[in-house]
Structures are given as structure tokens and as C-alpha cells.
Amino acid sequence: MSTTDPAAPVRATLRAVFGRGLPAFAALAVAVALTAALASPPDRLQGELVRLMYVHVPAAWTAFLAYGVTLVAGLVWLWRRAAVWDRLAAASAEAGVFFTGLAIAMGAVWGRPTWGVWWTWDARLVTTALLFFVYLGYLALRRAVDDPVTRARRSAVFGVVAFAMVPLVHFSVLWWRTLHQPPSLLRPAAPAIGGGMLTALLLSVLAFTALFVLIVRTRMRLTAANAALDVAELTGAEPVAGDAVTAPRREATR
Fold first, then answer.
1. SS3 content of the chain, % helix, strand, coil (to 5)
2. Which of residues 4 and 142 earns the better pLDDT score?
3. TM spans, by residue (predicted)?
4. Which domains are present in the chain?
5. For residue 198, is pLDDT > 70?
């Protein structure tokens, strides 16, 4: 008597979305989010400037997500010592630095007309800048160490310690007096926005998350391919296309 696995449809859907369908899903998510952001109503006080929120907030959220993935991947590497977890940690940290920089840039563009300055020594801005430079240090550490095992171990420890900056950034607007508004979504009470704005913001978060997954997957594949090429150069083997493995070199026939 055959039994049906109830989780099979879920796994099939995940493989479809995160496999070959991921670029299409990410593109669709971006298109839907952009449409929702343009269709959302202007803010009562800030007017059309509020549309910067649909880039600034999702970029910050995605950066936090990326650093969380780096933390978890580093911990798993310390436990399992599998190279794939080190590649995941590195790729996620690179994406996190990109999205942190984007959040800072969009915050400056938003702050100029609302606060009158591009930058101020505000608690949220300063801690976010520190977060950016801490993870730049993480990436610099990876480049400074040649031995892959030593690099993975030191990076994993660094990534675990560095993640302490994430809650510091998030709670900075609650712990100190700041120009930056309190959290709109990640807060004990109900979200501070609603209606079309909330829908557009959630769709933007989904789109940025999909882009993050796509970036990390692509970066991991490139890293694996580079590792395969390095092995091929050392062993004289030919890398197999699409895989981080090598195949024996065929002798030329006379």
C-alpha cells in the first residue's frame, strides 16, 4: 500500500521557487512591489517623500536578515565544519553590507528634506554606520586569511560577535533620544502604518527578501565555481561545468 508524503507538495513548491524559478519570482516580486509603492497614497505630512520608505525600510530589514544568516551559518560551521556553511556566511555578509549601504544612502536622501541635513550624529544613524563598518571588517578579515579552515573559523567567531550590533541598531531609537522615528513594523504594538502603505511596505520587504536570496545563491555558486577552478589548477584536472567538483583530464590522442 503506497503512502503519500504530505510534505511533498511543499518541498516541490520550494524547489520550484528557490531553484530555476527564483529569478522570475524575484523579478515578479519587484514588479508587484514597485506597482504597490507607486499606487500607495502620499503621507499626510511628508507627501510623496514617504515613497522612499519602500526602499529604506526593506533594505534595513534585509540587512538584518543577512547578518542573522551569517550568524547562523557561522554557528553551524563551528559545529559541522562543512565548507558550504562558510560560503553561505560570506555571501550573506556581502549582501548585508550592500543592503546596509543602501539603507544609509536612502536615509540620507530622505533626511535632507525632512531634517534639513544629509547626516547628523543621531543614535540610529551612528549605530547603523558602525554596523556597516563592522561587517566591512568581517569581509576584510576573510580576505586577509589564506588558509580556508582558519579563515572560516575566525570569520565564524567574528560573525557571532558582530551580530550584537543588530539589536543595538534596532533598539537605538528606544534607548536614546533620537530624530529617527520609532519602529513602524517590528514593535510590540500594532504597526504604525496601515492600509495601502502597509501593503506596499510588506510587498517591498518580500521583494527585497527575494533579491537577497537570489544574490546569496548566485554568490555561493560563483564561490564554489572559483574553488573548483583552484582545485583544478592544483591537481591538473578539468572542472565539471556547474559543479564544484573535478573530473580527470583526458589524455590527447595521437
1. 70, 0, 25
2. 142
3. 21-39, 59-79, 91-111, 123-144, 156-176, 196-216
4. 17-237 (1.20.120)
5. yes
